[in-house]
Amino acid sequence: MNDIPDHIHSSLLLVFRRVLRPLTKLALAKRIPVQVIIDQLKKTSVAVCQEEFGLTNKRLTDSRISVLTGLQRKDIKAIRLSNDSEENLPSGAGPLPRLVAHWRSAPGYQDAAGLPLTLPKIGPNPSFESLVRMISHDIHPRTLLDDLVALEYVEVDRSEVKLSVDAFIPRADEGELSRYLANNLGDHATAAVVNVLTAPATAPYFERAVHYNHLSAESLENLDALSRRLQQQTLEKINAHALALQIKDQGNQSAVGRFRCGAFVYYQSPADQASKEPNE
């Protein structure tokens, strides 16, 4: 094992171990060899160097990347020549998440109680056809309807479509699940890391959590239900407000920013506390 440089604090290494643990579990479950993960880490290290650690008015040389990363220059050269130093999943939501979000928040698509309307399949606004046209003019409404039916997100009769979920959460499609994981976890990790690197100045991103130990299974169930309900309500309000702002910003050439607000709940039951991930 290589010696750890003196400037690397042990607490930072514990951060990496804790954060990498669930990703390692995913890799092992999907039978991804460790060497493949190492290769991706090398590519990502080179990409981050090129994007974040360049010097003003100076070419970022392989030697400087080697100093920053500890990688051999021959490996760095091969990565830079490969033109695929990092393969990013799209950072935006796909058409299905956007369609569900619009259905729950776009003006004219909810009833007096704020619930999504049951829509005629075709016809003028509001209809499923017009809803799809709000998302894209390049996708046929039938294509998205078939996808929603396959996911059991809608109930369909001969002429109408009813939304039966609160939000789009991938269930089975591995590509969509991977996009969901990469985007949510990636942005959360980015915000958390920027906050750490910004210290002792004020953290630019909001990041908070509530954590309690010594809870019974019944108490965990109670907290889980409360957290899901309150966070769902909050996310729906933010979604409606964000959609209204996006509609307002249409045609604004400077409107190129993106925003993500997430929520999560995690708990360990008393039964598996001793055998699962370490308690923090």
Structure explained in plain terms:
The longest helix is centred in the C-terminal third of the chain and has 33 residues, at 217-249. It is globular and about 65 Å long. It starts with 9 loop residues before the first helix and ends in a 31-residue tail after the last helix. It has four domains: 10-87; 95-163; 174-207, no CATH class; 214-280, no CATH class. The protein has helices at residues 10-29, 34-52, 62-69, 73-82, 95-105, 128-135, 141-150, 174-198, 217-249; strands at 119-120, 154-156, 160-163. Helices cover 51% and strands 3% of the residues. Helix 5 (95-105) crosses helix 6 (128-135), helix 5 crosses helix 9 (217-249) and helix 6 crosses helix 7 (141-150).
Which stretches of 5+ consecutive residues score pLDDT under 50? none
Q: Strand sequence of the main sheet, in spatial order?
A: 1-3-2
Distance between the termini: 27 Å
Helix content: 40-55%
Using the CA coordinates, give the radius of gyration: 23 Å
Number of domains: 4
Order of helices and strands: HHHHHEHHEEHH
The number of helical runs is 9
Q: Indicate the overall shape.
A: globular
Could you give a short account of the major beta sheet? 3 strands, antiparallel
Secondary structural class: mainly alpha
Strand content: under 5%
Mean pLDDT: 86
- Say how many strands there are: 3
Describe this structure in a few short sentences.
This protein is mainly α.
Defining traits:
mainly alpha; globular; single chain; 280 residues; 3-stranded antiparallel sheet
